Amino acid sequence: MSWQSIVQSLGLVALLGVTVPPLGRYLAAVFGGDKAPGDRVFKPIERFLYRASGIDERREQEWRTYAMSLLAFSLASVGALYLILRIQGGLPLNGSDRAGMHPAGAFNTAVSFVTNTNWQWYAGEVTVSNLTQMIGLTVQNVVSAAAGLAVAIALIRGITRAGSRTIGNFWTDLVRGVVRVILPIAVIFAVVLISQGVIQNFSNGHLVATVDQTVSVKQQLIPGGPVASQEAVKMLGTNGGGFFNANSAHPFENPNPLTNLLQIWAMLVLPFSVVAAFGRMTKDRRQGRLLIVVMALILATFTATAMFAEQNGNPRLTAAGVDQSMSVTQSGGNLEGKEVRFGAAGCGLFAGPTTGTSTGGINCAHDSLTPLGGAAPTLQMMLGEVSPGGVGTGLMGMVIYALLAVFIAGLMVGRTPEYLGKKIQAAEMKLITLYILAMPIALLGFAAASMVLRSARTFQDGPHGLSEVLYNYASAANNNGSAFAGQGTATDWYVTTQGVAMLVARFFTIIPALAIAGSLARKPTVPSTSGTMPTHTALFGGLVAGVALIVAGLTFFPALALGPILEHLSL
Question: In the chain, count of helices (H) and strands (E)?
Fold first, then answer.
């Protein structure tokens, strides 16, 4: 790799090291105590929202009520966004006369943004109006991330409480997440992006003369719009839906290496900070540090694999005499589908975090990755978005794996497993099983159907075609949103089935997690003894990582063997 890629990687680690601990402390104060920084500013805003919405902030909910509140909010959000998308042609700030989306496309988009997936089957700059981008998509970028954060906080409360039937109040957690966390950071980040050249206006575009007036097309429409505000929360909320079809490969969204580095940081800072807050709220920071290390090692492994695979280039091109080596005159590597501003290794550096979280933003075309370079982000999504996962949902997934790991360890020594003083018994294991099975069923079920249905064949023949289908459903079934865009998915089959996969991935995991929180909250805290397995050691961290990799490997290896692995071996 080039020295620039190494410096960028080290700079990313330094940025996270400086920002994650204080943000973790802040999150723990916001959700774990009566007083928090910024009360003088934020409390009046919260009280106004509570009064306007009829919310009793002091009334807590049991897990079923918490889950029903989240489902009701999500259902209302889907309906509102669906309506906006259908009628956007008659709404203001639609200077290019963009028509409303057709029903299947509007359903897919509404579900996509409400579930924090932000999959886009369309080109944003020619399909969605400025008003829809602002009051529809950007709003959901904010509240869907806050909803995931609320679920993580509820799970932490379930672990830390004893003999309690409640795990908090969803509406209060949602408001705090929006007002105190997502919006303030997004506003600051948007200003930084504007200072670096990301556009922010209400323009529908400027018609300009092309440089070469000898060609048939002598004019080009340069698009505009409120990009920076959406871009900021797109990355901070691990959303991924870009204003432009090219996403973060577009210079209006991601102008230079500095914004590229900051966008990678923005994807990772909140997911890691939630885990840091977990350590503080459980009053055992070692637990948070261990999970952060496990997440970071998995992320680093898959990111490095993608970076090296892309920098090494395509061996078939080398055999054909193409020079893909790195030198003072060229960046080298597999540059197909890459932005020359970022290079091949820069694509891998972005691809790791965007698939390790539930972001899905891209700064290169993932369908152009080498087989090994494409397999790394695909498998990383198949782990269940735990490295470090989305805002809140990453911690949720890692805690599920930790509970499974401690249960397996308990079986080995013949002792009832315990995690942070709570016994893990049959009820929790049934819920963990439901959580783990939901995503593979949606992914493999729809992928298999797509491979055998003639009407669904919009992919290439051979192993790369299977890789495209697996990647796209892995993205939908893990609320990621990135794509192997070489496959056409703007058909009724794909927009419908991927919409269903997004719903399964979001709610058939969140509901079991909330049920686990409710079950653990009711249990008493068991004091540690000499027979209690410590859950803050490197041994336990290795067990958690091993469980995550084994579950994903046993579930997906046959499909991967016929797709990216076979494609790599055939080069």
Answer: 21, 4
